[in-house]
C-alpha cells in the first residue's frame, strides 16, 4: 500500500478527476502542496475550479496524460481497458483507488468521522459539518453534494477532524480508517455488486469492525435496523444508538411540523430531555439523521446550544428536496431520491407541503437497481397523485437484464395510480406544461440528470 506522506508532497494524477469525490480529494492534496494533474471525459465547473486551484486537468483520457507521476488515483468507474489505467500499469506506477486514497488521508487526522448507510449520507455528513464548524472544530469535510456554507463539496480545515461519507458500493468503505462511524440504515441496494441483503449486512459489519476496538472507537448506530445484535455483537468500542425504538440512547419526542414540513422535536438522550430542536430541512427522516449528527457532535464536545443553533440554520445541500422555483403557478422541487425508501420519505415530506396535486417525474437510476427493486419502486411511487417516468439513467451499466421504465409503469398502473411513460425530456416538459396546474407541486426525482427538466421549467 502506498503511504501518503504530507511532509513530502509529490505528484499525483487522478483518472476521473471531475467526479465530486475525486475533485474533493484532489483539492485536499493541492492544499498540502502536492502537484496534481488529472483527466475527465468532459469539462465541468469542478474541473475549472481545480484548474484555478493549480491542478492540470485534461479533457479526454489518453495514455500520454500519464507523465510519470509518483502516484495514480482512479475511481471505481474506471475499467482496466482505460488507456490511462493501462499506461500507469505498464509503467509500474504506484496506484490507489479513490477509496484507498481517502482511507490513507484519514490516517492523518486525530478524529475521522465516517457516515455510512444506504441513504441519508450526504445530509447527515452535512449536518455534522455544519455543527462542527459552528462549534469551531475546524473540520476538513468531503461531502457528496454541494453545501452552500462551504462553497462546494470540500472544506479544508485543520488536522484535528476529518468528516467524510463512507459508501458501501464495491466495498469502498472497507479501505477507510474511521475513529467515529455512523450507520444510518442497511437496505438492499447496489445489487449489481452485492449478492443479496445478507451480503450487504456482512459488508457493514466488516466496516464497523474497522473502528478501533477500544475507547478510541465510537459507533453511532440506528437501533431500528433489523436484528441490530448481528452488527453490535462482541464490540469493544463505545456504542450509542438512535431511532424510534424505545431502548435507543438518542430519541425524538413530540415531533411536529411547520407549514413547510420542517420538523421540531424534543431531544431525549438516555432518558434525559435536553430541549427542543428545530430543523431547517424538511421531512421526518431528517429527524433521525439529525439524531445521528447530534450524537457525533456531543462525542466531539460541541455544546447542545451550539448544536441546536447549527441544525436550525442548516437548510440542506443541492438536490435534497431543493425548491427550484415556480412555473405557471406550480412549484418545482428537485430531489436526489433513487431508492424506494428515499422515494417514500420524499413523497411523505411533500404531502406535508401546501399543494393541490402532487406530481412526481421519476428517472430510475441503473438497470440492475430497477430490476431488483421493481415492486418496491412501484409501491413507493404510488404515494404520488400522478407519475411521469423518464427512461432509465444507465450510469455505469448496459441493459443486460432486459428492463425499461415501461415495466415500472405497468406495475404502477396495476395499483390504479395515473402514470405516463415519456422517454425523452422534451416530451416530458411539454406534457407538464399542458397538464400541471397552478397550485400543484411537481418533484423531479432521481440520481441522474432529471434535474434538467426542473431547471428548464423554472427558467421560463
List keywords for this structure.
about 450 residues, alpha/beta, Rossmann fold, UDP-N-acetylmuramoyl-L-alanine:D-glutamate ligase, Protein-Tyrosine Phosphatase, Chain A, 3 domains, seven-stranded mixed sheet, six-stranded mixed sheet, 21 strands
Can you describe this structure?
This protein is an alpha/beta fold. The protein folds into three domains: 11-97, NAD(P)-binding Rossmann-like Domain (Rossmann fold); 107-313, UDP-N-acetylmuramoyl-L-alanine:D-glutamate ligase, CATH 3.40.1190.10; 322-458, Protein-Tyrosine Phosphatase, Chain A (Alpha-Beta Complex). 32% of the residues lie in helices and 24% in strands. The chain has helices at residues 20-31, 45-53, 83-90, 98-106, 121-134, 197-208, 228-232, 285-299, 304-313, 340-351, 367-372, 374-381, 405-413, 425-435, 451-458; strands at residues 11-15, 35-40, 56-59, 71-74, 95-97, 111-116, 140-147, 152-155, 161-166, 180-183, 218-222, 238-242, 250-257, 263-269, 272-278, 322-327, 330-335, 358-362, 386-389, 419-421, 441-445. The strands form four sheets. The chain has a seven-stranded mixed beta sheet, sandwiched between helices. The chain has a six-stranded mixed beta sheet with strand order 16-17-21-18-19-20, with helices on both faces. Strands 3-2-1-4-5 form a five-stranded parallel beta sheet, sandwiched between helices. Helix 3 (83-90) links the parallel strand 4 and strand 5 (95-97). The protein starts with 10 loop residues before the first strand and ends with a helix. The model has no long low-confidence stretch (mean pLDDT 94).
Amino acid at each position: 500500500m502506498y503511504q501518503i506522506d504530507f511532509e513530502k508532497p509529490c505528484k499525483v494524477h487522478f483518472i476521473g478527476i471531475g467526479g465530486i469525490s475525486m475533485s474533493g480529494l484532489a483539492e485536499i492534496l493541492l492544499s498540502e502542496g502536492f502537484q496534481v494533474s488529472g483527466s475527465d471525459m468532459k469539462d465541468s465547473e469542478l474541473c475549472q475550479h481545480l484548474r484555478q486551484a493549480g491542478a492540470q486537468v485534461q479533457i479526454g483520457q489518453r495514455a500520454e496524460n500519464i507523465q510519470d507521476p509518483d502516484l495514480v488515483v482512479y475511481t471505481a468507474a474506471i475499467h482496466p481497458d482505460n488507456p490511462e489505467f493501462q499506461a500507469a500499469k505498464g509503467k509500474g506506477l504506484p496506484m490507489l483507488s479513490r477509496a484507498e486514497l481517502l482511507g490513507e488521508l484519514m490516517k492523518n487526522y486525530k478524529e475521522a468521522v465516517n457516515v455510512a448507510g444506504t441513504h441519508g449520507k450526504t445530509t447527515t455528513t452535512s449536518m455534522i459539518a455544519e455543527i462542527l464548524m459552528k462549534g469551531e472544530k475546524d473540520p476538513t469535510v468531503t461531502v457528496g453534494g454541494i453545501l452552500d456554507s462551504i462553497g462546494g463539496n470540500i472544506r479544508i480545515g485543520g488536522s484535528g477532524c476529518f468528516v467524510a461519507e463512507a459508501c458501501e458500493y464495491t466495498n469502498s468503505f472497507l479501505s477507510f480508517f474511521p475513529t467515529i462511524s455512523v450507520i444510518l440504515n442497511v437496505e438492499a441496494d447496489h445489487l449489481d455488486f452485492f449478492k443479496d441483503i445478507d451480503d450487504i449486512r456482512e459488508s457493514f459489519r466488516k466496516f464497523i469492525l474497522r473502528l478501533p476496538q477500544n475507547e478510541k472507537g465510537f459507533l453511532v448506530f440506528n437501533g431500528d435496523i433489523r436484528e441490530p445484535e448481528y452488527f453490535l455483537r462482541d464490540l469493544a468500542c463505545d456504542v450509542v444508538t438512535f431511532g424510534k425504538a424505545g431502548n435507543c440512547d438518542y430519541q425524538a419526542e413530540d415531533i411536529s411540523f411547520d407549514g413547510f414540513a420542517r420538523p421540531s422535536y424534543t431531544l431525549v438522550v438516555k432518558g434525559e430531555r435536553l430541549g427542543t430542536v428545530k430543523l431547517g430541512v424538511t421531512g421526518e427522516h431528517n429527524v433521525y439523521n439529525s439524531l445521528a449528527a447530534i450524537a457525533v457532535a456531543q462525542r466531539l464536545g460541541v455544546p447542545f446550544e451550539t448544536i441546536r443553533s447549527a441544525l436550525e440554520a442548516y437548510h440542506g445541500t443541492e438536490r435534497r428536496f431543493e425548491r427550484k422555483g415556480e412555473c405557471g403557478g406550480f412549484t418545482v422541487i428537485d430531489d436526489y431520491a433513487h431508492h424506494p425508501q428515499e422515494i417514500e420519505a420524499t413523497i411523505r415530506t411533500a404531502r406535508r407541503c401546501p399543494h393541490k396535486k402532487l406530481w412526481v417525474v421519476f428517472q430510475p437510476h441503473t438497470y440492475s437497481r430497477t430490476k431488483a427493486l421493481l415492486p418496491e419502486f412501484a409501491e413507493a411511487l404510488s404515494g404520488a397523485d400522478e407519475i411521469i417516468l423518464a427512461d432509465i439513467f444507465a450510469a455505469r451499466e448496459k441493459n443486460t437484464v432486459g428492463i425499461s421504465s415501461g415495466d415500472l409503469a405497468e406495475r404502477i398502473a396495476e395499483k390504479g395510480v395515473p402514470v405516463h411513460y415519456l422517454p425523452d425530456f422534451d416530451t416530458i416538459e411539454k406534457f407538464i406544461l399542458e397538464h400541471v396546474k397552478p397550485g400543484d407541486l411537481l418533484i423531479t426525482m432521481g440520481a441522474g440528470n432529471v434535474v434538467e427538466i426542473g431547471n428548464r421549467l423554472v427558467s421560463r
